[in-house]
Each structure stands twice: as C-alpha cells, then as structure tokens.
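INPUT
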Amino acid sequence: MINFVYYTPTKMVFGKDTQYEVGKLVKETGAKSVLVHYGSERVVRTGLISTVTKALDEEGIKYVVLGGVVPNPHLSKVREGIELGKANNVDLILAVGGGSVIDSSKAIAYGLGEPDKDVWELYRHERKAKKCLPVATILTIAAAGSEMSNSSVITNEVTGEKRAYDDDIARPVFSILNPEFTVTLPDYQTMSGCTDMMMHTMERYFSTAGNMEITDAIAEALMRQVMKTAKILHKDPTNYEARADAMWAGSLAHNGLTGCGTNSDWATHLLEHELGGMFDVTHGAGLAALWPSWARYVHDNDMDRFVKFALNVMEVEKQPTDEETVEAGIRALEDFYHEIGMPINMKELGIEPTDEQIDKLAESCAKAAGGPLGCAKPLLKEDMVKIYKMAR
Amino acid sequence: MINFVYYTPTKMVFGKDTQYEVGKLVKETGAKSVLVHYGSERVVRTGLISTVTKALDEEGIKYVVLGGVVPNPHLSKVREGIELGKANNVDLILAVGGGSVIDSSKAIAYGLGEPDKDVWELYRHERKAKKCLPVATILTIAAAGSEMSNSSVITNEVTGEKRAYDDDIARPVFSILNPEFTVTLPDYQTMSGCTDMMMHTMERYFSTAGNMEITDAIAEALMRQVMKTAKILHKDPTNYEARADAMWAGSLAHNGLTGCGTNSDWATHLLEHELGGMFDVTHGAGLAALWPSWARYVHDNDMDRFVKFALNVMEVEKQPTDEETVEAGIRALEDFYHEIGMPINMKELGIEPTDEQIDKLAESCAKAAGGPLGCAKPLLKEDMVKIYKMAR
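OUTPUT
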C-alpha cells in the first residue's frame, strides 16, 4: 500500500423528500446569492426547480437560474455561467442534475473563484486552482459520483477536447440525494450509470502499488453489489431500495474510498474521454465498450490483480491457468454488460471510427495524458491505437 | 432503509512519516495556539511529542502540553484541560494518542467553545453543544474510531458514570494516521481494538429498519477483513500492512459508513459503559465479554439479521433451523474472540460482579438510556439484569 489522503467533506443528505431541506442547507453555508444550474428540462417539468426556488425565497436568499447543460458538458455553457454569476454576485453554485451539471457547476465555481483567469487553463493542466466558490448539489442521476468527488470533466466543443480537472477545493459543501428522482430515468441511462460506478472502482482496483486488503474488500463488495443492483433495476426500474443502493454506490465509488492505499489506472477513462469528445457517446456505455479490450491488452502486466478480480468480483471458478482465469473474468463482465444492455465494443456502442479517426483519438489521448498512461501497463500512443482497434 | 445524513469532514492523512506534516496541517486551520494533549508517556519516550512541538515551533504556532489522560478518561482531566486552555487562549486541541485522548480532547474543545457552561451537562444530555473548538488528532491506537467520528465518551470518576455525547461539530478537522505507531502496542490492546471495530460495525448491523444492501455489503466485508487482520496481528504484530488495515478499518467502522440507511442498536456499548465506569475494564474486551449474552437474549426479535450475520460475516454453514444457524454464528464469533485472546464473559474478563453490583449496573444503564435501550430488542432494566447475569 502507499500513503494516502482521504478527504470527503461533503454533507450527504440522503433519502425521500430531502429536497425540501435545500433552503436550510444553503442558509447554513452563509450564501446570499445562488446560481441554480441545471441541464434537462425534466427537472423543471417535475417541479424540482420550483421547489428549490421556493425554498430559497423562503430563506430570503437571492438566486438566478441557468439551464441547458448537455451530456459531455460544453465549455461555452461554463463561460455563460461564469458571466451570469459575475453579473449577479453569485456566491454559491447549486447544481440540480447529474454528473454533467455538477461538473459544469464546478467549472463555473472555479471561474468565479478566480474571475480574472481563463478557467480552461485548469482543464489543460496549465495551472492549479487557488480559489473556488462553494458548490452544492441536488443529484438526479446515479452515475458519475461528482456529488462527492473532486472531479470535473468538461468538453471544449470547438476543439473536441474532453478534459478532466480534479481538485479537493471543488468538493461540494452538501449534496441532496433523493433516489425517487432517478426512478423515471431511461434504462440505458441507468445502466450506463451503474457501469460508470463499476469503472470508477475498477480504475482504482487495477493498481500496481500492492493495494490494501481492507480497500480491496470494500471495493469488491461494492462492485458485486452494483452488479446485483443493476440487474434488479434493469427489470424493475421503480424499485426504491435498489435505486437507493445505486445512488449511494455511485457516491462511494468515486469519493476516494475504493482507492485508499492504491495507485490508480484511469487509462480506460481517458481513452473514453476521447470518444466522448469526438462522438458524444454516453460516458458509462463508452467505458463498457472499451474496457474488455483494455483488459485483454494490459492484463499480462498485472496478472495477480486480474486473477483476484476474476475470482472475487466476477466470482468465476479458478481455471487451470491464470491466463484462463483472467479471460473467464473478462468474459463474465462482458456477459454482465450484455445482460444489462451495455455494449462491449464500439460497434455495439454505435460508432465505427476509421483508422484515421483512431489515430486522432490516440494522438489526443496521448497528449492529454502527457506521458505513459495508466499504471497496470503504461500506455503510449501506439498502445492506444491497438486498444481502440481491438475495441472496434 | 431510512433517510440518513453522512458527514465526515475530517481530512485523513494516512501512512508512514505523516506525523511530520502536523505543522503544515495545523497552520492550514489558521490556529495560533494549540493544546497538545496526550495520555501515556509512551508518546513522549518515542519522541512523537517532541516531533509535534518542533513542527509547531517551525510554523511559529504557540502551544501548551498536557499529558496524563487515562483509559476511560476522567472528567477531572477534561476540566484541567479546559482551565489550561483558557489560561493560554488555546484555539485548537491536538490529541496525540488513542480513543481516550481524542474523546477527552473533544470534551475540552466543547468546554472551551462554551466556557461559561459546565461541559458535563452535554454528557448528561441536558443540552446540545452550540460551539466547539477545532480538534485534530495524531492517532497511536487503532480501535475507537474517534479520529473520524462525532463521538466522545467520558467517565465522571466521582460518580462512576461513563457517558457518551455525539455531535458532528466535534468531528476532527484532520487526523494523522501512521500505522507504525501501533506496532509496539501490547497484543491485548491490539485485539481489544479489533474487537471495538467489530462491535462498532455490529451495533449498526443489528438494525430493524430494513437496512440497505450496499451498506450491508460494505459492513460485512469490513467485519470479515477485521477478523482476518486481527488473526494476522495476533501472530505477527509488526506486520505493517496488517497494522495499516486495522488502523483504517477502525476509522471506517465508526465514521458512519457502516450505518448508512439503518437504525442502530448500541445496547452492548451502553451495557459495557457501565462496566467501564465501575471496573475500569478495557473497552473492547468489555464488549467481547457482553455481546454473546446480549445476542442470545435478543436474537429472536431480529432473526433475519442474526441469520444474515451468521452466514455472511461468520460464514457458517446454514443449519436445519434458523435458531441453529444463529447459534452457530454466535459460537463462531466466540471462537474468534478466544482465538485472539479476548473474553466471552465477565469471568474471563476478570470481574465477577455480585447481584447487588449487577442491579446497580442495570439501574445506571437504564438511567443513561433514558428509555428502552436498543432496536434489535428494546431493553428495560430487568432485561439488562438478565443479560449481565447471563454474561457473568
């Protein structure tokens, strides 16, 4: 194991009707002027936005509302939010939505924290943030874990770059999680969300730092449970208990808990970010389409972990050779993805990039990585090309 | 499952040599005058206290040092700390030690937060705290989880009352956890610590609120791992990886994670607090001595949970009847406690209370509970008498 810092200051307020606590929770932060930020009009239609504005009114807190965030959220919308925030002296960003809305809200909060600087510099890793306004969230999609994480991923829709910036100062001050908000989500989005949770844990699990037994035990339990929960929700989407399990698992999968004491890989995520930038695919589904090829390409470099994953997470029988055990584990995950309607390659994802496009994806990914990518097997551009081609 | 709030703002700085970060971490809090609080002279002899004071000196932070906290920490020492803090305009309490030192530090922080009020009123549940100075910790014993929890347990050594007060405002601002500090602990203390972690999770596991599958999965994984780790450390106390697993498990077992979505029992803890108040036993060992009797007394009221515990945590074979499965699970835990040198009744703990003493223990416990105790089977004074006698 390696030394680590675990820091999750977000107050998580979880359960039915918790949205009605938003006014009190904002007031506790001391905020006077809130930017209420959302994506889909679904949260307007369901009355959630008016619940929020009514609660803020009741506490005498000013607000301005900005909607229209899209999946793979755009830098232009972030800039719009920053300008709106400046004009209204906003001192807290309240994200109402899923990972895209929260990531976009974090970007706005960075922009307003240092209003004289260009926020995109952070995502290009040209500087570190010194200030950030407080962000709070009302989560409506269980997937990205942004409601408790330090991560934010933004797409520059002009250049097609999808880039991540992680910083603890952007961890939300509070997050409201009412699983009922997720009950009406389309199945594809729910299953993509569950895949994202699996992948957030797997990126940390495939480590070469020796790991910690207690972290492994928790991560394995979480992954087994997410697969159970996904299968339940695939058949019974209105099951509140399963919705609650999925929602809480999403936060725990990406708050750092499942990576304590390990180094992390993240290659599949960065490979997927390029797909998201070029083709606007759903993040979780994009991860499912790439992971099996990544796993087959890198596993020989991190054999013990892949065997452990096969036995303890996918619960396959031990095979005559480690190689066969690993392959059985990868196949079991593919079977699971198929069972819940997820793709296991890019064709099933609905995209068929040309050789030229793959070269561009790999070129951009290698540039974003800024060096060999991942720890299970550090990847150079030529490795990335091979993985994309295997996944085609 | 039931609604819950999960709030763990403590920055956990974990691993080798992390004690050298204490000056920087205190400085980040903005504190100017620190009360360095410790218990055993072991932390002086090992040089840890001088490492701390040197680091504070280097950052230009004033400090005053107070040692002498004992297990089942005394109210008189808390009052001494409060007076010393007042005299030195202290604005942060740095606990260097285990649960007793941290609990005592939280009590001092409450006392200094509201200097005109008697701190013992909190522990008698006569009022709620409105203010509390920041507490930080350098942990040297893996057990109580106080380094990340909202709990504090203090013994009024004049009346013999051992009382708990829980409040989120006392959660530490940061905690430094270097597993190397625990390597030289006596085996009995290490095993009592592991028992305390088990019990912190079990108190939450035996819930009647329907529970959450994801919380159960994590709690079960944690308990299985703590048992594995305890067995390793019982034979190989200098194993760093196992020391690290135990230390981190201690924090996770009591920060709230293993109780998300459940109500909690806590009867065994309150029954043990009375033993601690009257006989000054080691907390974890006291819990081990009481739990089997509590379990046999209450299990018929919460059968499904006890069966699940037997199968998923103790991993016993399913027996012809639920009753037999439950009993097999309890016996397996008793076997584990024996294997690591822990008692399973009060005689093995080294105390043999008379009927009169048991009546006094139950009387005091019922008074502290202020109503039926626990959720698995709510206990009245007469139930407590029976459990104490079963455990004798």
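end of record. The mean pLDDT of chain B is 96.
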